[in-house]
Amino acid sequence: MNILMVAAECVPFIKTGGLADVVGTLPKYLKQQGHDVRIIIPKYRLIDGAKYNLQALPYKLSVFVGKEQENFRIKTCMLDGNIPVYFIENLRYFNRLGVYGDDSGVGYGDNRERFIFFSKAAIEATKALMFRPDIIHCHDWHTGLIPAYLKTTNLNDGFFWNTSTVYTIHNIAFQGSYDAASTVPLAGFSWEDYKSDKLEFYNTFNYMKAGLAYTDIISTVSPTYAKEIQGPAGKGMEVVLQTRKNDVYGILNGIDYSYWNPKDDKNIVANFSADNYENKKLCKKYLQEKCGFKQDENAFMLGCVSRFDMQKGFDLIMDAIGKLTQFNIQIVILGSGDRYIKDGMLYLQSLYKDKVSVCTDYNEPLSHQIYAGADAFLMPSKFEPCGLSQIIALAYGTIPIVNKTGGLADTINDFSTYNTKGNGFVFDFYKGEKFIDCVLRAYDIYKNQFLWNEVMKNAFASEYSWKNSVQEYENMYNVAVNRKTAYNIYQKNI
Question: Is the pLDDT assigned to residue 206 strictly greater than 70?
């Protein structure tokens, strides 16, 4: 199949969350299965054109955002695995210091226009490149308008006659909902389209609803999350999803084990493996030294690599630190995002500087060192569509402590002292006392070397590779393609 991925982020070029990891990694595995996969993302100022050797293509293209004509260029390079990546360059919308907003966490006031432009530009770029996709795979609210355009304003465009769309929800909390009176004409839809109930959401214009209503297939990033969002976790989209429940797929994300592998990770001080993890102690000692902690092998070291967001359970973490530091527990946290959480974490570090270390500037080598050196990994998310951090932690024998939600419920099983099964520690009610009890239960197990070795073995044996998920994506794509073929045959016969 010809598969086009359209998204707002893609590693290694630009990343604010797990969306970028999926868009930058899944295509490599699809390529290995024989598909022609390509990617389109915006060309943000933060993307270093010289570093990635971006080449400008000889196209001068434009689209309308409302009545304003916006010109753009296409630049390109090859992603590892021989995947073409195309960058939509427009200085007005993407020549900024941030991706979605400034460092205060406030989104840009014209984000609705930015992603109207990007969606239209992606469609026009695809035509200019003469790449006829069997599947356009759209990711999150930023691209929700693409399936809608293909079935409304571009309905009679023969270029996309055989194109199906798949729309993936990475986080249903972010939907792109804007004032309808000004957004409908800016986006170029008719009022009849808006009033058809596929774009309207409580008197607003909702990008995610557009994607869900018009796409051929809906997917999200774990089986449990696919069920949760059809209920109270749906943030208002549950009714739309329930009406399309037969079109909703939950496919667990994977990680790239060639990159996240303690056996040959160049970012850690000593390599180790599931067969011999004695050197993990050296990684812990190095991390303790780097954090300014006492180098105590018996200390229970908790790590966390995360976006600073209340979704990630930082209200629980901040409330728990005072009690946890009464024990021989050390905590290292790497994150960025919400300023309130950042300030709170730095204040806690100042109170407990011998046991709490916080780094608020994202540091890729340090993230590897935390995964390798910590004993356990904190991820008490309030909700978690899939989560990759807990899977990475497992690969390094670092035991996840998680809330039972979304992808965390699909990947982490609570360790039992009765049969020594389970690869982590799980609490099932989002409450501070439950979280603290879970951490202290893990601490008690840690003090029993035999039992801790058992849970580490279980963690190392857990595998969540893209190889396990790519077949499910292929099957989903085939459903979309076959449905489109049947529809086209029907149209010819009427």
Answer: yes
